[in-house]
Amino acid sequence: MLPSPLKKQLASSLQDGFVLKRSVFQSCLELYPMAEWNVMMQKVNGLNRFVKKNNDFIRRFTAGVKVVEIDALGRMLIPKDLVGFASIAKDVVFSSAVTIVEIWDKELYEKSISGEDLDFAELAEEVMGNLNYNDNGIS
Fold first, then answer.
1. Yes or no: is domain 4-129 CATH 3.40.1550.20?
2. What is the CA radius of gyration of the chain?
3. Are 11 and 72 in contact, with CB atoms under 8 Å apart?
4. Quick check: 71 pLDDT over 70?
5. 49-83 core/surface letters (b: 16 or more CB in 10 A; e: else)
6. In whole angstroms, how far apart are CA 66 and each of 46, 70, 78, 82, 109?
7. Mean pLDDT, to the nearest integer, of 49-67?
8. Where does residue 10 rank: exposed (0-12), middle (13-18), buried (19+ CB within 10 A)?
9. Mean pLDDT, to the nearest integer, of 17-39?
């Protein structure tokens, strides 16, 4: 069951449906509104399938992809193979990831954001430190 605030945010996408897939980097699932999935597939379809790495990537990226719908009550059926991949036991966390929603087992989510294995300040500087949002170089 999706939380009602999330369902409201996804309201414009409810009619088109969603794609649910395994995450590439984490033990969680990714929920793409169909419009976002189509944008991603345009990028993936631009890859040359005669390059072995590209072909291997496409196969693994699309492994386990399922088209899902959210019903009028805000429920979504997650297929068993994807529940197993994400090790979802009982409690679920829906986490915004810019244009998609990550779906996590609560314990795994808490562990992933605990910061025990990562210096977030260092990561933030490395990833975002060179971006300047204003012309004057002050972000």
1. yes
2. 17
3. no
4. yes
5. eeeeeeeeeeeebeeeeeeeebeeeeeeebeeebe
6. 21, 13, 9, 9, 22
7. 94
8. middle
9. 95
Extract the tokens encoding 10: 């996804």
Residue 128 identity (one-letter amino acid): M
Strand 100-105 versus strand 29-33 pairing type: antiparallel
pTM higher than 0.85 for the full model?
Answer: no
* Pair of tokens at residue 34: 């169909």
Domain definitions of the chain by residue range = 4-129
- Tens digit of pLDDT for each residue in 73-114? 889 999 999 999 999 999 999 998 889 999 999 999 999 888
Task: Name the residue among 69, 67, 46, 75 with its Cα closest to residue 58.
Answer: 46
Tokens found for residue 125: 């500087």
Cβ-defined contacts of 120-127 (< 8 Å, 24+): none
pLDDT at 34: 96
Q: Quick one: tokens of 41?
A: 């597939």
18: nearest Cα among 96, 91, 77: 77
